[in-house]
Every structure is written in structure tokens, then in C-alpha cells.
Amino acid sequence: MSSRLLDSFANQRIVQNYFRSAFARCYSSKTVAATTAGDGSRVGTEKELDDPLAAAEELPVTFIEDEDLQAEREARIELARNKSRLSPAHRNMLHSRLPYEEPQSWIHETIKYKRTMLGRYGIEGSRVDPRICFPTKKETIEKVEYERVAFPHTLQEMMEMNRKARTEKQAKIRAREEEIGKKMDKLEHWIADLNARNAKKESEARVAKERKDRLVEEVRRHFGFKVDPRDERFQEMLAQKEKEDRKKVKEAKRKEKEEKMMEKLKKKTAELEDGSVPAEEVESK
Which of 15, 127, 271, 275 is the most exposed place for a label (fewest CB within 10 A)? Predict the structure, then answer.
């Protein structure tokens, strides 16, 4: 601020020196004393005519600036003030003013944008007619039709439907929990069955491998010398041995079954002789 004052004082001194030199060149002698014209205009005073330099010092210094130059100067000052480098629209928004004085896009002419500006900057700040916020007759009809199609049920009906849905959901959850509880009770039994099945499969696989090894050894003993298992004679003899072994296994199972049946018949016969089981029940079985 002090530098600006010093500049203005220096400019004043320059102008005063200029007027002094001008008056010194134009007036070199004394003239008559100051008189007043008949129309009241001032001609001059004796002091002014005797010493034009002193008169120039008493004159007020005024500056007349061109309006275009002044507007340009104000624009430069305003540009220098804008240290943020924001655009005019963003600067207006920062100072809670309408971003654009004139519409810049078709969006600025839409009802939605105008309603937003009215709600953000008010009636005076947005320069928007507040009646634009109220729906038109067409919009009201469309909204009623939309609500009729989108929400056909009344509030009471929707509450009842919601209550039923919650009840059904809770019933499903309870049923699922009961089912899980029952299955958890059977879990130990299922684990035991699984282990038994796995043990049976392993036993069967072990027996089959032992049988295979036994048959291969029998084939080798049959030839009396070492034979390559991929040899055709070895494969034929092995197939024959497997066929015989299957026949033996089948025969053994048949005999075992017959023995079980005989044991069962003997048991029933003994029960009949003792009279512990009625004859009608035996015949039905």
C-alpha cells in the first residue's frame, strides 16, 4: 500500500513541475489586477499574474482517464487477484453464486437443472421462477398412473404380505434346523458305516491282489521257468487259471449258501418240534 501512495505522490510532483514550466514560458511580465467580468467570470488575481508558478501550486491536480483504459486496468487487477486459477464458473460456485450468467448447454435449460439451482442459490441468486418446482397436470397424471401400476397394493395389504413372508421364512428356517439336528444325530452312525464300507473295499482289493499274485505264481510254476508276464502263453494260462478260480469261488459261495439254508431249516424244525412257533406262521414264511 505504501508503494502505491509513493507512486501517486511522484506523479503529482511531475504534473506540478510541468505546469510551472508552462506558465513560466507563457507569462513573463505582470498584467493588470484581477477583475471580474460583467457575467461574473473570473479573469485572474494579482498573485496569479505576478507568480504563475505559485498559482500552479494552488491548482488542484485531477486526472481524467479513458473509460476503456480504466475497464482494462480493472480487468488486469481482477485477473491478478485470481490466484487460484479457477474458471469463472468454479469461482462463482466457490463464492455461492450462480455458475453461469447465460445458459452454456441444453442441460442448463432443463427443469431438473433449474430446480437444482433454485434449491442451491435461492430465488434471487438463481433467478428462477419458483413455480417450476411444482408438477404440471401431465406430470401429476403420469405419477398417479406409475404408482397405480408399480404399487398396486395398499399399505395394509403390503404389511400383511410382509408378515406372511416373514412367518414362512421363519418356518422354513425352523424346519431346516430340525432336519440338520436329525442328521447330526445320525452322523456317528453314518461315519461308522462309511468306515466299514471303506474297510470292506480295502479288504476286497487286498484279497483280489493276493489272488492275482497267487495265480501268477501258479502259472510260473506251471511252466517251470521264468516267463515274461506279457507273453501270450502266460496270458492264456493266467486267463485259464482265473476262470478256474472264479468257478471255485462260485462253488464255495453256493455251498456256503446251502449250508446257511440247512441251518435255517434245522432251526425252524427244532422250533416246530418244541411248539414255540405256530405252524401258520411257518407256512406264511
Answer: 275
Residues 6+ apart with CB under 8 A from 91: 82, 84
Question: pTM of the entire structure?
Answer: 0.33
Instruction: Give every CB contact of residue 59 below 8 A, 6+ residues apart in sequence.
Output: 19
DSSP letter for each residue of 131-192: GGGS--HHHHHHHHHHHHHH--S-HHHHHHHHHHHHHHHHHHHHHHHHHHHHHHHTHHHHHH
The cell numbers describing 112, all together, are: 431438473
In angstroms, the CA 254 to CA 262 distance is: 12
Number of H helices, E strands in the chain: 11, 0
Q: Which residues contact 27 (CB under 8 A, 6 or more apart)?
A: 49, 52
Task: Name which of 15, 29, 25 is nearest 57 in CA terms.
Answer: 15
251: amino acid identity, one letter? E
Could you report the per-residue pLDDT of 85-135, keeping only the tens digit for each?
888 899 888 888 899 888 899 999 999 999 999 999 998 888 898 998 898
